[in-house]
Amino acid sequence: QLQLVESGGGLVQPGGSLRLSCAASGFTLDYYAIGWFRQAPGKEREGISCISSSGGSRNYVDSMKGRFTISRDNAKNTVYLQMNSLKPEDTAVYYCAAGGYCSALVVEYDYWGQGTQVTVSS
Fold this sequence. Notes:
The protein is built from no helices and eleven strands. The chain is mostly beta strands. Strands 2, 4, 5, 6, 9, 10 and 11 form a seven-stranded mixed β-sheet that branches. The protein has a four-stranded antiparallel β-sheet with strand order 1-3-8-7, with no helix packed on it. The protein is globular.
């Protein structure tokens, strides 16, 4: 069964850090671009970062630049999202997705994880 599984979410205070992981099972991530998305209550799912299959290209939305870092370890079949300086407005369910190329569009991705909750609160 082809599956993506996110982990690493939780409750963190403002200014804190979390590292999310996206692990694949049943297929290799080597040939896929991986996007991270998030969805806050009452809002649409939004793309926040993406890394190409080779890792040579990394994209971030402006509000995440300098705070979030995406990386991948193809040997571990895992992609990471390091999140620093977290703010209450970062609270959301975070999803990873695999597709043929980086895109901010949900429809461009073939496989999705179930999501991991990130809550930033004091």
